Amino acid sequence: MATSGARGGRLGGLGQWWGVLAGALLVAAWVNSAAGPAVVITLSALVVLWSFFQAPVTCNAPVRGRPDGCRNNASGLLLGCHIRQHRWQKLKMLIVRRQVRAFCAGLFSDGKATVVTLAGAGSFISGLVALVPGVVVH
Asked: Structure pTM?
């Protein structure tokens, strides 16, 4: 079977979007009260992991001569693009105190990054709420 393009597998590049399906299932689990907290916590963890490590976003690692950073495609909010140095730069931005602001600004740099950031934060809060019994009023 011949594949077309870099992501021409069986799913045609849609395999990197499985977190959106997990997010939709998470919303359905909150709507349907029959789904227990274990389901909500599991789906929340999956969406958080997807947004941190696999969601398709822009790299935004600091690049000399470009105020907006690297524009290559990256996997997840915490990882950089295919350039190894950019991966270390993104992770270092979380540790170095002066660079945390730049990292946080990059979370809302474009539409995709904003959606992925909000999905990750919302599912993290969802998991915390499901962990603490009695917080949600039925």
From this structure: 0.78
